[in-house]
Design a protein that fits this description.
It is built from 13 helices and nine strands. With 293 residues, the chain is an alpha/beta fold. Helix 4 (67-75) packs parallel to helix 5 and helix 8 (165-193) packs across helix 11. The structure holds NADPH dihydro-nicotinamide-adenine-dinucleotide phosphate and 4-oxobutanoic acid.
Length: 293
Amino acid sequence: MEVGFLGLGIMGKAMAVNLLRHGYGVTVWNRTLSKCQELVQQGASVGETPAAVINKCKYTIAMLSDPSAALSVVFDKDGVLEQICDGKGYIDMSTVDAETSSKISEAITKKGGYFLEAPVSGSKKPAEDGQLVILAAGEKVLYDEMVPAFDVLGKKSFFLGEVGNGAKLKLVVNMIMGSMMNALSEGLCLADRSGLSQQTLLDVLDLGAIANPMFKLKGPAMIKGSYPPAFPLKHQQKDMRLALALGDENAVSMPIAAASNEAFKKARSLGLGDLDFSAVFEAVKSAKDSDSA
Ligand SMILES: NC(=O)C1=CN([C@@H]2O[C@H](COP(=O)(O)OP(=O)(O)OC[C@H]3O[C@@H](n4cnc5c(N)ncnc54)[C@H](OP(=O)(O)O)[C@@H]3O)[C@@H](O)[C@H]2O)C=CC1
Ligand SMILES: O=CCCC(=O)O
């Protein structure tokens, strides 16, 4: 089967490579077209524009940075809308808000196309290993047709009903994750300032009720001040912002998420946005430094 793939960032590249490895024909497009070359070496074809990819492929997946990128690729000149038509499916796996997803869904459906939102849990390594968790919502027929590809990309996929439910669930998950990362950062800072070993703190956490893969994976690198980007901090802050907006809409008070968002914003202002989201630890440390000055 030929699948289109729009967006070859950290996630998109790993996912497209996985599809190629499993025998899919993949036609790729990326805003910075030079990034397509690595995929071509692994057997992909290149579409010059999103419209060209849609024209060629029955199914096209997008994995783009944020709502503005997701909208631009669909609605701008040479975008998805120019070629989407009866019988074609568009699957947006980017993390966006429900409103963005609904706008895209309506426009595609109006042209006779099928739409599915399918954001994912899991980062660079799970994407490379086909171990993502896929949160799909929208056109059930398209979901059923995509299950074999989702089985390549992920270890589990959920169908959540109407468009928006996948986007919302993803934001709730990432809101919790961002708050946990801030709690870990404050804990590491507090341990250090209290004369305790940060590694011992990690060892103790890993043996108890709040052991989790994220602390285990990120903690040791954080102690070393190493933040190679798997999940860029700027995207985590975007997710906190969108989750807080969802909280506003539903009158849900979220003081912990709001404080965590401030820490991610602070980290961005320190120029850490392209590092891994665990680099929020640097912002937490710098706030504690100025508190004690
Ligand atoms: N990294 C992770 O661990 C995870 C990320 N996600 C989500 O997946 C999505 C992609 O993340 P990730 O791969 O890490 O992000 P990257 O920043 O690595 O890649 C972003 C992609 O979006 C493209 N892009 C950005 N702006 C535009 C635009 N205006 N028009 C067209 N293309 C654009 C970039 O193109 P270019 O190369 O030209 O800049 C690139 O292909 C995000 O929504 C993120 O929140 C979800 C789960 C995990
Ligand atoms: O959106 C990014 C999620 C990262 C993860 O689930 O590890």
